[in-house]
Amino acid sequence: MLTPLAYGLAVALTLFVAFIGARFLVSPRAAAAGYGVPAKEDGDAAYLEIKGLRDLVFGLLGLALAAFASAHALGWYMLVVALVPAGDALIVRRHGGTWAAALGIHAATAVVVLASAALLFAV
Q1: Which of 13, 65, 91, 109 is a good FRET partner for 34, with 20 to 30 A between their CA atoms?
Q2: d(C-alpha 117, C-alpha 71), whole Å
Q3: Domain ranges of the chain
Q4: Which whole-number Å values give the CA distances from 43 to 35, 46, 53, 88, 92, in the listed order?
């Protein structure tokens, strides 16, 4: 019973990250607003696309690990990748984003990713 839950949560999270990455590539300004720090109109869109590529690759890597590696390998991946939303929370606050975005989006995501890692280690 625990194995499908552990893998299901990990796959859902990695699909979500891949979706976020694709959104930053397709509609970078809207994605930045959803991130919690709207992009400036005259800002360099390349940095938004870099974030999109990073997230898309992280999502695809997670899916590859879910398909071809052990639960522990996927668990280590989730544990390490939890640093990204935790860091994102700090970045949002540092650049004028709201506490709601920092905690409600990014810190909460980090907690869910850590829970996913814990489930994968328990399998």
Answers
A1: 65
A2: 9
A3: 2-122
A4: 16, 9, 18, 19, 17
